[in-house]
Queue: 4 jobs
Job 1
Amino acid sequence: MIAFWLGFLAFVVLMLAVDLCVLNKKDHEIGVKEALSWTGLWIFIALLFDVFIYFAYNHHLLGIGLHSGAADVSGMEAAMQYLTGYVVEKSLSMDNIFVMAAIFSYFKVPRLYQHRVLFWGILGALFLRGIFIIGGTELILHFHWVMYLFGAFLVFTALKMQFSKDDENMDPSKNLILRIAKNLFPVTEEHHGHDFFIVKDGKRFATPLFLALLVIESSDVLFAVDSIPAVFAVTLDPFLVFTSNIMAILGLRSLYFALAAMLGKFRYLKNALVVVLAFVGIKMLIADYYEVSSLVSLVVIFALLAAGIIASILIPRKGNK
């Protein structure tokens, strides 16, 4: 039913409009307490939406998947698939926070304007991920072997993440989009408030804030290449893939301000994310031979993330007593 797609998109637009035009009309630094409150609210909204998913699929209101079995998914199974997809996307977005912090540091973006950059960055991410999800679903439906390609890619990404250095590929100056933008626009050396462009002597200049936005957008494309196939391992229903992905992304800004300064303490979280990626990749590769249920997937992913966090807390760093 197209009405549910339009309703969800209208909800997203409404929340973003309230965010930009009401709650954050004036630029201000977002503290940890405010960020944690918003993070909790976004998680609550995501879980509330899962309740809607349960009842909608239970009453066959959302038989809108692009594959033949979508309409036969029970409410409980759909709710599990949505929640698992949400947890996968939310956990993988942790790595994205490190990149955001590096980008803001490179461009010396004041905390006062970081929210504005993330707002427009996430707005662009919603559009790009929608295209990826629709395209990915169509590919899998028409070329089933793409599932194996996605699965192998996720396992490869997990291995690459495990053996790469933490600071590898973190230098925004190497970003291709950034180099192209500098060739297209003259760029100011200093920031000009929250403006992305200024006009000086009749000539339009891009500010470092605009360059930071471009790099964040291009970085999200790379993260989407990892995270969206991971959710396809959970479900092929495009509505569940899209909504779980977008709900996780909507809370990414507040999560950044809440955890950016703390993520360094969870040094084993990266190892947990590596295993999560490998798990969903293998799940994709063996899907035709052995089906791992949504409940088992959810429990395994929760357990892996919890293990990474607990290990980071309990195991002291080398050199510490």
Job 2
Amino acid sequence: MYQLILAEVKNHIGYITINRPNQLNALNKETIAELHAALDAFNQDSSVGAIILTGSGEKAFVAGADIKEFADFTISQGGELAVTGQTTLFDFIENLSTPVIAAVNGFALGGGLELAMAAHIRIASSNARMGLPEVSLGVIPGYGGTQRLPQLIGKGKANEIIFTAGMLKADEALQWGLVNHVVEQTELMTKCEEIAQKILANSPMAIAAAIRSVNAGFQDGVNGYETEIESFAQCFGTKEFVEGTTAFLEKRKANFRG
């Protein structure tokens, strides 16, 4: 079905692996399109409660965009590249109602770091290296990097990373709040699955509402508090709210997927 990625479901978790190891899993148009298709399919599958996204091999999550694909682009082609990429993949992931965990298993540079930042949670292996080196190529991050990096680590630190085209080691990324956890590479998927299983124990509807509400706080012209109130209120009209509160009062575990 897919040529450049691997996708499977196990124990209610969707696994997506970018499978271009000889290109260090670099993103090209086809890979972006396949990632969109797989993410969309998992998001529409009610049995999938969390998605883990990673790269093949032990060197790279995604080492960047495929530069040879756009090295001769014009201004209008560059604009179209950014619009299409952001809409098809990066914004799409951020607004997905199923949580996406990025398992950053090596280099996450340029579009690779932008991909990880679009995910809801980031776990890095100790050998991971992260950065936005675009200015060294005479261009800037075009898949949301100038927006999401300051949101995650603050404006001053983001400016330093972007302006110097520098790379962060995994422990620095953890210290700066760019990733949630750092583990040895052999433990990376186990840690991601551990978090995914905790997510699976909770209400899918409520998690989707929480994603929507958190994201609203970062959108221009949107009142995040109002979105939260509206989403909070809508929860009261769902079967999952009835199950969750009933289970609490009956002192049993809620069964949201039964």
Job 3
Amino acid sequence: MSTETNSPISSQTTRRKALKATAGFGVALAWPNSKVIGANDDIRVGVIGANSRGKSHISAWEKIKGVRCAAICDIDAGVLDARVTKSADNQGFAVKGFTDMREMFDKGEIDAMSTATPNHWHTLAGVWALQAGKDAYVEKPISHNVWEGRQLVNLSRKLDKICQGGTQSRSMGSIQAAVKMVQEGKLGKIKYVKGLCYKPRQSIGDPGPSGGEIPANVDYDLWSGPAEMEKPLRRRRFHYDWHWFYEYGNGDMGNQGIHQMDVARWFIGEDKIAPRTMSIGGRLGYDDSATTPNTQVVYHDYDSAPLIFETRGLPRAKEFQENNWGKNMNKPEEFPDKGGISVVVVCEGGNVYCSAGGQVAVTDAKGKSMEAPKALPSKDIFQNFIDAVRSRKREEQYAECEETHISSALCHTGLISHMLGKPTSNAAILEQIKGDKVLTDRYQAMAEHLKLNEVDVAGNVVTLGPMLKFNPDTEWAEGNGDLDAKANKLATRNYREPYVVPEVKI
């Protein structure tokens, strides 16, 4: 390759051509006057999964002083080509491109990995990174199932590596201050906490018997990884709608909702999974090929206070399914002027609201607005990870992997109850839960929401899951009779060789 000209335009064009020729093959490109990777104490990060959230990862690492996005890995050659080219241009030095993360760990010359793959890859990507001697930033949910998340935590301890979860709400100073205020008892005892994911989710349709198309640039074996190589595909949109199938995703509770689940658990101060969990819900209001619930109430029966998680993908009424769906979602009853992707803490002396973006509002017991606490000093979640990589102090992390694991596991246990449930009539559901006033209230609110979307809940439409008992120490279902084996089978998965998460004992 000629490097005779020093013209900025010619150099840029040459660089892009070479990147396109080598993307995906682990080839390092050296450019005239480019910086030498590893020549100082910069932390070199490799990003895995660059199509959606991964773009944010790449941008974040590029902007942090003393950090370089040194390598990018993606199973879609077209995506990889674009991201490597742009990142190299942004940073002014060579960025390596890989299709297989194992090759990146071996040849990528990186110190840390960050991954934004589909959920079914999160844990294994983290495991392989730690085994290769790298620190790891693993997006939320940190796992696809309960068991594998614990293995990642155990491995980080065993190898003494830094492993950060992607529950970045913990880095927001406004939410930190709100949690501190509640935990200090300034609003009295917590009665219950609600995590809300009222986020518009329309039907994904059905690709029919021939199935959806696998993009030509995709290495489908690598994309599938631990999961079976499904053919034909049950979705038209390859790169996003995997969220709504259990083999790869965890529904919206494990997609957007994991952030609110994590903040809700943070408020009540619980550091283990709930001893009892129940789901009521379903995929309702339209027919499509997806399998995960779009409407759900999950009840985590902690001894300290209930944690309730509500998912609503339908708008507030049927008419809005054809008219501005996205701007007509439900709001929290306690804060009707606030957004529905949020956390509401209901205390004896008042309520607290935290939005997904970190907005905090406080009211007293009569609903009168109070002054919100002043935000605490904090750093960006990516900067926090880098600080911990340098200090080697796990406790400095806002979202250390065990924190994200426990909150991710709460999403998983809620889905396990749903998957073990049965379609049940409204009257039978109310009879089953009548002993719990809070759960009854939240179910009735969901039922009314469904009725406004013209879903007839009188018949056997809504799935009532069992109230499952879990051992918070072992994280296995215990004490449920014949349901234990079924629940525990769903708490892990059958891994496809060679994409197997290992058991890690410490």
Job 4
Amino acid sequence: MPPKYLSMNNEVVLVINSGSTSTKVAFYTRQGELISQSIGHPQKELEPFERIADQLEYRCAHIKPFIDEYLSKSELKVIGVVGRGGIVKPIKGGTYRINQAFLDDARSGHYGEHASNLGSLLANRLKDEFGLPNSYTVDPVSTSSISPVAEISGVPDIIRNGRAHTLNIKITARKIALQQGIPFDKSCYVIAHMGGGISISLVTGGKIVDVNDGLLGMGPFSPNRAGSLPLRAVMKLCYSKSEDEVIKLFSQNSGLKAYLGTEDLREVLKMVKNGDKKAQLIYDAFVYQVAKEIGAYFAASKGKAQAIIITGGIAYNKKFNNDLEEYVGTLTEYHVRPGENEMEALAEGIFRVLDNQEEALEY
């Protein structure tokens, strides 16, 4: 497939984004994407690996043929490799040079086991293929710029530090700021990333100053995650099950999936259309909880948010967008930007560093 764009000197970056059962690979120039491919990994092939980090060589072997074949047919020069950062210790946003400490934390899963942990490991593994001294990651899952007041939980030993869909949230904020003619560092938005996990955030001055924990805890329930729950009932449940059982229940088997047997909102809306009263109630509750959370973050902006932005995969659903807008559309401008944009965000981040527009950070 011929490239859509070519920079003057054919410089490209290789972008890697590891998901639970697939790895997305793409080549980008400064003008945009040349080609991308999502390479699937059947669950049966992943089952023998005890830990996510153990999949490194397996995944590398599966994405290398695509990379090698494309480069063999072009005259492109790979000047950088960037991978999605996983769950490491809480760090501020930006583009990071992947060092040994970052690799150790991603590999160990000390701060959380997640498929995104493989992104940095793959980027570091492949940089040597192109004779590059460094590999990079941008706005890892653990990125946190939560303000001190937002960190307070109500229990001194518990600190709120949200894990969010930072890549998509920040690139979406950049795009809306550009559209509105507002300097990114002067902008203020409430952004809801709507996917399997939900991150609702307050983005002020280009930083996520408050956000729910999109992986486990706080916020509305999602297609398969529990969100905020009544504490007394949680305590009772925790005394009756093991920690692993509770984590799996809250992070994988709750939300729409638990109530209706599916985590696909499209299937839920088919049930609603067919007159399923339970599906109608759960769908209404889903929209209600998302709207309530957005309203809370708008209040946290002191009513100064310049837009409410809905993004992520669920944002492709027009009925959901319209139903949600009925709740929050009068607060400020209401924008819908479907999709995840993670690959683009990774590419833009590494180019900002390579072009000396931004300093690379050290973990």
